[in-house]
Amino acid sequence: MPKPSLQFMGLGEFTFGTSQYEVMTIIDGELEVKLPGTTSWNTFTNGDQFEVEANSNFEVKVVRQTAYHCTYE
In 38-56, which positions are buried (b, 16+ CB within 10 angstroms) versus exposed (e)? Predict the structure, then answer.
């Protein structure tokens, strides 16, 4: 199992893929996220978290530079 990670994202739009179940917690910043199986964007800011199933893709729009923490299972 990978160790938890602390990462940063600059402004932009990205698509991420997961190989394991992932929990992402926003430390500081703002993201708009479209999770797998959904058609709408959700906003996540300081202290918010979301979960992504293994072997899936999700889309992210970075509204403000963002620091985040990921854990994996």
Answer: eeeeeebeeeeeeebeeee
Please, is 67 exposed, middle or buried when counting C-beta atoms within 10 Å of its C-beta (0-12, 13-18, 19+)? middle
At 3 the pLDDT is: 85
How far is the C-alpha of 62 from the C-alpha of 44, rounded, in Å?
10
Q: Which residues of the chain have pLDDT under 70?
A: 1-2
Give the chain's domains with CATH numbers.
5-72 (2.60.120.10)
Is the full-model pTM beyond 0.85?
yes
